[in-house]
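A quick word before the example. In earlier lectures we treated sequence and structure as two separate objects. From today on, think of them as two lines of the same record. Here is Cell wall protein Ecm33 written that way.
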Amino acid sequence: MALRYLVPALAVVGSAAAACSGTSTISSSADAAALSTCSTFSGDIAIATSNGDDIALDGIKRITGSLSVRKNNKMSSLSADSLSQIDDSFEIQDATLLSTLNFPSLTAVDTVSWIGLPQLGSLSFTAGLSQVSSMDIENTVLATLDGINLVEVDTLIVVNNNFLNDITMQLGNVSTALTLSANGQDVRAEFPNLEWATNMTLSNCSSINIQSLATVNGSLGFYSNFMDGIMAPNLTSVGESLAFVSNEMLTNISAPSLRTVGGGLIVSNNTDLVQINGFPRLQTVGGAVDCNGNFKNVMLPSLQQVKGAFNLQSKRDIGSSCSRFQKLAGSSAPIRGKYTCKSGTANPKGVDSTRGGGSSTSSGGGSGTSSSPANPMYISGATGLMGVVAAIFGML
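And the structure line, produced from the sequence above:
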């Protein structure tokens, strides 16, 4: 008699164990409820495209694989009351009605990718999502990133979130890339603890706080921002390019500790910038110096070496600057590449548009002599959304 009841009981236990592993496709709220006994789900959970129920993955504390929602235009809410860790990815793409993400215990995910969520206006992450390797948030209506407070990250991409005006994190380092672009009209980007990064592209921001930033191993670019000042008081080196392009309200650039730029130094098309004097300790530029716009004075008092081309072009009279830098130009002088300085020109151009053989005319400073021009490499500003192209030049 005992065996008669034991066999069905073992079958139930085996069924429950099987439900907690593998790949589970959730097509209804009942499917989600069936996983509530799984403290750990060993595998992947996917929400079906056809699901129209609000999904609550309650009871699960850890998913060893991924949690995904793709091309669902019916579900409005996704939640998990106890989930604290997703070992792989948390991916939501093209969920057109999803308005609620409620994960009060979630703190750690390897990869976050939330793209195409036109109804998602807020996040409910009470414990705070703090451990993420890669995060990509695009095309949402989020107003803030409250509930996300990363300490370190490999890649952070936040683009095309038209209502997002507050991006504040306690990031200490970014090991691959940080990209902000085309978010709200009044974006405040606050990274007060950020000390080093590999690549950073900051666009369409009204204020940027990088007060602790000391080292950028790759490129650092500011494109089409809306603030009047860009301050990097502790920045000492940029391994590749440093660019300030099409920041129309910019009146002041300040990087008083900067000594080395490994690639090009680009200051281009910043309409209100009339003084380029924020690099008092800059000694070495491994690529080109390319300054063009509406400025009247350029000061680089500590400059010792420019390995690429040197181009100054302004609508204003910069004769005194031309004369000063002309003395530093030549194959055995600090400025080794092609030297160009044009004062009072109606159409200031970047280095690539001045390339060609022979000497270039230096208004206010005579003829420039140089070795061959630097080889150009092109990078797009931010994610290419503004149509801004910065020309960064390599070594001779």
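Notice the following. Confidence is low (pLDDT under 50) at residues 1-18, 354-396. We will return to this example when we discuss secondary structure assignment.
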